[in-house]
Amino acid sequence: MLVDKIEELALKILEKIKLGVIANWYRKHQEGMRYLIFGALSTFVNIISYAIFASLILRWLPSESLKVNISEIISFIISIIFAYITNKLYVFKSKTNSIQELIKEITSFTGCRIFTEILSILMMNMAIWLHINDILMKVIANIVVIILNFILSKVVIFTKK
């Protein structure tokens, strides 16, 4: 896979510049490191899509709360699709043997992400109520969500059979 080749190239570069200790540590903790990398990319997708909708596409909405909530839901949908694909294929390398297993995995993933998204929405609304910058709160909410999502992914969704 392309991801594996890029990752190995980066690790070889680290070894060439005498940072083999870091490369070895990365290989030892590959799943967690990939989760952080793809989690960061998913967060980036989430924040950028939120900013695009809140600042450009939905800026005409009469209510700040409505704009924030609609933008949050749209950015959630976009990032959950990205996160599921990358977590399944590259992080946890999940194999499903039947359509039922795949549906169960997607359902668990979506359910856990909905739970953490509700938490994120509550945090975003707290930003409105406390007059905290919504982009700053978006970043903070995403840090909390990434930690919870890793735990849920490891324990509930992508468990090794």
Can you walk me through this structure?
84% of the residues lie in helices and 0% in strands. The protein has one domain (2-157). With 161 residues, it is mainly α. It has helices at residues 2-16, 20-28, 30-57, 64-91, 99-129, 134-157. The mean pLDDT is 91. The two termini are 23 Å apart. The protein contains six helices and no strands. The protein is globular.
Provide a concise account of the structure shown.
The protein is an all-alpha fold and 161 residues long. 84% of the residues lie in helices and 0% in strands.
Number of domains: 1
| Apparent shape | globular
Low-confidence stretches: none
The helix/strand order is HHHHHH
Strand content: under 5%
Please describe the biggest sheet, giving its number of strands, its sense, and whether it closes into a barrel. Answer: none
Number of strands: 0
Mean pLDDT figure: 91
In which range does the helix fraction lie? over 70%
Radius of gyration: 18 Å
What structural class is derived from the secondary structure elements?
mainly alpha
Rounded to the nearest angstrom, the distance between the terminal CA atoms is 23 Å
Quickly count the helices: 6
Draw up the topology in text.
Elements: H1 2-16, H2 20-28, H3 30-57, H4 64-91, H5 99-129, H6 134-157
Using brief descriptors, characterize the structure shown:
mainly alpha; 6 helices; globular
